[in-house]
Amino acid sequence: MGYDAFTGPIFSQNLIGRGDLRIQDHCKDGAHSLMGYNTNQFPNFFMITGVMTPSALFNIALGIERDAERLSDLVAYMDAHEYVAVEADARI
């Protein structure tokens, strides 16, 4: 039907990462993420129930709440320790 529920919303944002890498090019061989939250070469880009998350296996509303709480804790930690960027390791 032409609908892409997983990467479609991310690709439609035309994100540009390190070295002018487009998210579409980054995912050309398949999308990868760290626990569905973020991917390498795209610092500070967080996905809620993103690619490779187990969101289809649990109550999506509760999953979104859990993800938002974890990411909120991460941002608070970064702020408290004066970190300016977070990024998934390329080995994911």
Keywords:
92 residues; mainly alpha
Query: How would a crystallographer describe the biggest sheet?
Result: none
Task: Report the C-alpha radius of gyration, rounded.
Answer: 14 Å
Structural class: mainly alpha
User: How many angstroms does the end-to-end distance come to?
Assistant: 31 Å
Average pLDDT = 82
Give the proportion of residues in helices: 25-40%
Judging from the principal axes of the Cα atoms, what is the shape?
Answer: flat
Q: What is the number of beta strands?
A: 0
How much of the sequence lies in strands comes to under 5%
Number of helices: 3
- Poorly predicted regions: none
The SSE order reads HHH
Give a structural overview.
The protein has helices at residues 8-11, 23-26, 60-80. The chain is built from three helices and no strands. It is flat, with a radius of gyration of 14 Å. The protein is mostly helical and 92 residues long. Helices cover 32% and strands 0% of the residues.
Summarize the structure.
The protein has 92 residues and is an all-alpha fold. The protein has three helices and no strands.
In terms of topology, how is this protein built?
Layout: H1 8-11, H2 23-26, H3 60-80
